[in-house]
Write a structure and sequence with these properties.
This protein has 106 residues and is of the alpha/beta class. It is built from 5 helices and 5 strands; from the N terminus they run βαβαβαβαβα. The protein has a single domain, classed as Oxidized Rhodanese, domain 1 (3-Layer(aba) Sandwich).
Length: 106
């Protein structure tokens, strides 16, 4: 099973030096509107073919617009043997409210 983490909680972990990789599973047009710097972007529709590009031993936080697609991606990655996966609940929308208000909401 995967964890749930808030955008603010993930930002704090990353600031503390925890090696979380942020995976954004939104579509390219969405990422053009709003994105978190340093995120790895693999659209959900491509994840089954591309998940091997990710480090299964590193903590992985999955982000989408509001949390639905990222929860599906987190469940998939957990089933593929990723050891620590978290869904960023509230997605980029919550990230723009809690962490970085310069990120546009859409």
């Amino acid at each position: 099973m995967f964890e749930e983490i808030s955008p603010a909680g993930l930002a704090a972990c990353r600031e503390d030096g925890e090696p979380w990789l942020l995976l954004d599973v939104r579509e390219p047009w969405e990422i053009e509107i709003a994105s978190v710097p340093g995120a790895t972007c693999i659209p959900l529709a491509e994840l089954a073919a591309r998940y091997t590009e990710l480090d299964a031993g590193r903590p992985l936080a999955v982000l989408c617009h509001s949390g639905g697609r990222s929860a599906r991606a987190a469940a998939f990655l957990t089933a593929q043997g990723f050891s620590r996966v978290a869904n960023v609940y509230g997605g980029i929308d919550a990230w723009s409210r809690q962490v970085d208000t310069s990120i546009p909401r859409y």
